[in-house]
Amino acid sequence: MNQGRGKFITLEGVDGAGKSTHLAWLAERVRQRDIEVVVTREPGGTPLGEQLRTLVLGEPMHIETETLLMFAARREHLERVIYPSLAAGKWVISDRFTDATFAYQGGGREMDPRRIETLETWVQGEFQPDLTLVFDVPTDVAARRRGARDLEGESTSSGAPAQASRDRFEQQNRAFFERVRDGYLRRAAQFPQRMKILDANRPLADIQVILENIVSSI
Ligand code: TYD
Predict the structure, then answer these.
(1) Do the domain assignments include residue 3?
(2) What ranges in 96-173 are assigned the alpha helix state H?
(3) How far is the CA of 57 from the centre of ligand 1 (A)?
(4) Angle CA 45–149–204, to nearest 5
């Protein structure tokens, strides 16, 4: 797929699975091997993509509009960041990519995955990440972590979760996140070569050992 080029690694998981912490650590480990690393995210990763992110996380919209905007941002991201970086031999580590659309819009919002596949083929052809790490935690654990994050970001001392700071996805209920989690697990079962599930409930040091081994193998 990316023969002779950089590697494309994506990190996935429900909100609150802890992928941001692992992403920073992983990028540092790869850099220590004298490899140039581009850290990026979806939706976003380009100036236009970041504007689309603000819209899609903030404005109420039809599910198909939401999905189309995810892929519009992705198209820019591929063209301006991902493809050129890989071609230049850099590794690209992205906080989410197309598996998130299958999990959130397909699983969470119950959109027909065949429609998502059509957009996937349109926007990226056969292109896929070399490796996708799915950080998996029980839905309750993820909800607790999201709650803790809300409290950290709070400016008042009321003790109530700062609901207003939650984006359109973080505001969803437990059933939504169960469907997102199932969406990721189903997809990982479908693409076992590319997608690795990590139990994100384990101690950080354990996860880092597993990550180190996986990265060495590619
Ligand atoms: P996230 O990456 O979790 O950022 P933060 O850690 O800053 O909250 O937030 C992005 C949100 O976008 C997340 O809730 C998942 C959602 N999302 C989709 O619904 N579909 C997609 O295709 C992508 C890339 C993200």
Answers:
(1) no
(2) 98-100, 113-124, 139-152
(3) 8
(4) 80
Q: Which domain holds residue 137?
A: 8-213
What pLDDT, in 10s, does the model give residues 53-107?
Answer: 999 999 999 999 999 999 999 999 999 999 999 999 999 999 999 999 999 999 9
Residue 2 counted as domain residue? no
Ligand 1 atom with minimal separation from the 108 CA: 19
Q: Tokens in use for 46?
A: 């380009």
Residue 3 has a pLDDT of 47
* Domain membership flag for residue 139: yes
For residue 66 and ligand 1, the question of a CB distance below 6 A is answered with: no
Give the tens place of pLDDT for each residue, 102-152. 999 999 999 999 999 999 999 999 999 999 999 999 999 999 998 887 777
Domain assignment present for residue 119? The answer is yes
Which residues lie below 8 Å from residue 22, measured CB to CB, with a gap of 6+?
Answer: 11, 133, 135, 200, 207, 208, 211
Q: How far apart are CA 181 and CA 23, in angstroms?
A: 19
The size of the chain, in residues, is: 218
CATH number at residue 171: 3.40.50.300
pLDDT in tens, 1-32: 444 699 999 999 999 888 999 999 999 999 99
Q: Cα of 210 to ligand 1 centre, how many Å? A: 24
**Angular region, 185: left φ>0, alpha ψ -120 to 50, beta rest:** alpha
pLDDT on residue 4: 62
CA of 95 to the centre of ligand 1 (A): 8
In the chain, the number of structural domains is 1
